[in-house]
């Protein structure tokens, strides 16, 4: 990672008293991981403004993963400047804020035609708080993915998320190359049935890309994948895990011991 959110905040003076709560520590780790994804992806980029705003280009057609992101109370003027810069790159993109967007942020979003909204929970669980399954349903083997297997990983993930392979661009290869990141494929009866990714940043473990192919859902593969990532991440030194979950997957993560810290809004 070139420069972490923590170091940018220290350099700019933004948030010196702010990034101390559990929520803020998890947020800092999330931004550090996004930075790593962007700078390791071909065609990706990561930039930070003097007001603490971040611009991430992950070079794919998923608007929620390209855009202007605010780790704290948004600097509306800076968000507007960086949104104009982001628009020049030609990718679909979003504006992200913690909690509810201010009227100023909504105006910036409207200026760029970002009228859709998605609210996602930021969830966390300590290593001691994880509730592992005592009798796992899944019998899938969870295999670590090598960088040379990035295309197989991408094809499997696209099938799991029911999306065309090309929407992910080179992002998934970048994720596998990023420091502290490990990709996984679940294999059942010789067939790839799911994916996952763990990303360790300091003492925090991010969980990403949990997906199961449609014909293999509701058999415990997603939980088995999540548990493997948790075990490996905690063994690597993390003490807390975090993730952003779809509405449908919240009950799964709550059953694992995760709880919602806060919600983030994406305008796209």
TrEMBL record:
GO MF annotations in UniProt: acyltransferase activity, transferring groups other than amino-acyl groups
Protein name: N-acetyltransferase domain-containing protein
Pfam family, one: Acetyltransf_1
Domain (N-acetyltransferase) ranges: 142-268
Gene3D superfamilies, A to Z: 3.40.630.30
SUPFAM superfamilies, sorted: Acyl-CoA N-acyltransferases (Nat)
Domain of life: Bacteria
InterPro entries, per database record: Acyl_CoA_acyltransferase, GNAT_dom, Trichothecene_AcTrans
């Amino acid at each position: 990672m070139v420069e972490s959110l923590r170091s940018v905040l220290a350099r700019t003076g933004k948030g010196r008293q702010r990034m101390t709560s559990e929520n803020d520590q998890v947020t800092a780790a999330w931004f550090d991981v996004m930075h790593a994804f962007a700078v390791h992806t071909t065609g990706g980029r990561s930039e930070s403004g003097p007001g603490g705003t971040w611009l991430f280009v992950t070079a794919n057609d998923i608007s929620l993963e390209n855009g202007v992101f605010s780790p704290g109370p948004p600097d509306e003027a800076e968000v507007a400047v960086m949104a104009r810069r982001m628009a020049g790159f030609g990718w679909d993109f979003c504006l992200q804020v913690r909690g509810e967007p201010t009227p100023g942020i909504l105006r910036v979003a409207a200026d760029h035609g970002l009228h859709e909204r998605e609210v996602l929970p930021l969830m966390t669980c300590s290593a001691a708080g994880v509730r592992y399954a005592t009798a796992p349903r899944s019998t899938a083997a969870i295999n670590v993915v090598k960088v040379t297997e990035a295309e197989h990983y991408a094809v499997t993930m696209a099938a799991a998320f029911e999306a065309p392979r090309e929407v992910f661009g080179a992002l998934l290869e970048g994720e596998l190359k990023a420091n502290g990141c490990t990709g996984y494929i679940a294999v059942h009866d010789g067939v790839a049935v799911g994916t996952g990714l763990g990303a360790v940043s300091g003492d925090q473990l991010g969980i990403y890309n949990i997906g199961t192919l449609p014909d293999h859902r509701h058999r415990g593969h997603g939980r088995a994948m999540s548990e493997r990532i948790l075990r490996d991440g905690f063994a690597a030194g993390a003490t807390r895990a975090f993730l952003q979950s779809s509405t449908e997957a919240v009950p799964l993560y709550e059953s694992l011991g995760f709880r919602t810290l806060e919600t983030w809004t994406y305008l796209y």
